[in-house]
């Protein structure tokens, strides 16, 4: 049984980095790569591990573009400022509709697992 | 009235109207109902007024299949029984616990929760609990800071427990029993055989023996067996001089369906921010000893085809150092009782610390399993009775139920935007027959003389009378058809009150 530790962290910053969005245009990567799960689990390593496991079990989403496209369609039409709220709402809908999976024992929304996967692609 | 059986002449015949075998929670409850009744009650206790190592040694036996608490100290062999070391946790069974559930083989009592409600209210008083209120809304109404987590009420609800001081029945009710002229408590009177008549239709009498070997006989119009699940089965099976398979065992059911509660850390919860937790901690309101655990609604159990279970919150993350209590619980019953006597469940009004990470402590029903059973050993105790061994066996439904419970909790906490659940690795190993070594039990021994209308499916009927025998009843948790998720003591006291009423109004009128 791995020891689980929870430590306070600062949000990762990816200022200037962008990812392609569906339908053209771009979205600041910081929005997609700062999963709300970071605030809940308070552990970068755990979030990264979750993301790594997601990419392993869903190999077709094992890159940033594929992940962004998987997350973004459900938040289409939301501007940058409202994107976090749209993604959080999508996460709650995932739970309500049963779009969940278990990674490293954590019961997660598919959307947030994808966010973790994007986060795991960032340099450590 | 108290008689030490060691002072009686060998061969003495003890006679009465009602004979209760065992002076633990069930036996004392029934005896109290008969005080000043005009009936002569013989209350037989194999031990003395205080716990003694020599008497506990008569309870020694082995758990043959998996670790368990030492049988010589898991239950207590003296006046007051296992209330001498219990922790006082009380909660009534849920209505679904009594229902036939098609996904739980061998489920379905011949009585309902409603049948027991009036007796639960009376049991509350015997165990020195607060008002008979187990709806969380009542406790929330007492204090605005006491409120439930905003989970979907169709899935999860706050299941309330109240905490007895704990009532050590041998202390609290000693005077009431000893001073009752019509209740004759015989200590050191271990029943070694229940003797049926030759036609095996009724009990003719009992044989008792002291540890020094002095034998006596008991004869009564009605008998109630109240020695706890392990020793009820042991005595019925060992009473085989006329009924060769044991008394009440025409269909090979005595001793089977032994059930415990699985008590184990199953998951941890990370909340996004600290939540109001007063309802879920001890003490909760400061006005009484009560708190809630998270429980699944009956309909959610039905939809997911799982057993009943609850989870309580323990502050702090899983550390990897969690341990089972099986190995750490002492086999020295005297020491355990002494340590527990100092324990007091006292309400407090202090602030409840806020946490964001909690371990989830599971309390889970065991599916009734005929292969989980008490069997007689070839070894005999000092008095010459075969010892009782435990064959504690599980089904895949047991572990699956824990896993699905936490998966549902994970989905619900996520939906509510409150936090996330992480299941422990042992729940994700893909093998529902394998349990980790951190598993504990509740010291809750249930089944072994289960209740069912059909004598081919139960040892006793809906009135706790042994099928096929006119004058033998069984009291205590050994009559449970299923075990529910909650501690058994409140229910066994309620059932004992129901049996006492039945005997008084219908049998020994």
Rg from alpha-carbon coordinates of chain A: 14 Å
Quaternary arrangement of the chains shown? heterodimer
Helix content of chain A: 40-55%
Average residue pLDDT of chain B: 95
Which range best describes the helical content of chain B: under 10%, 10-25%, 25-40%, 40-55%, 55-70% or over 70%? 10-25%
Tell me about the biggest sheet of chain A? 2 strands, antiparallel
Order of SSEs of chain A, N→C?
A: EEHHHHHEEH
* Sheet having the most strands of chain B: 8 strands, mixed
Coarse structural class of chain B: alpha/beta
In order across it, which strands form the biggest sheet of chain A? 1-2
Helical segment tally of chain A?
6
- Give the largest interface pair and sizes: A-B, 27 and 29 residues
Beta fraction of chain B: 15-25%
Pick out the low-confidence regions of chain A. Answer: 1-17
Overall body shape of chain A: globular
Layout of helices and strands:
The complex is a heterodimer of chains A (124) and B (509).
Chain A: E1 18-20, E2 26-28, H1 29-33, H2 37-41, H3 44-57, H4 64-71, H5 83-97, E3 100-103, E4 106-109, H6 110-121
Antiparallel strand pairs in A: 1-2, 3-4
Chain B: E1 2-4, E2 13-21, H1 25-34, E3 41-44, H2 53-56, H3 71-74, E4 89-90, H4 95-98, H5 113-126, H6 136-142, E5 156-163, H7 169-172, H8 174-178, E6 183-187, E7 190-196, E8 203-209, E9 215-225, H9 229-238, E10 261-271, E11 290-296, H10 298-304, E12 309-315, H11 325-328, H12 333-341, E13 357-365, E14 373-380, E15 386-391, H13 396-415, E16 419-423, E17 440-441, E18 472-474, H14 489-507
Parallel strand pairs in B: 1-6, 2-3, 2-9, 3-6, 9-18
Antiparallel strand pairs in B: 4-5, 5-11, 7-8, 8-9, 10-13, 10-16, 10-17, 11-12, 12-13, 14-15
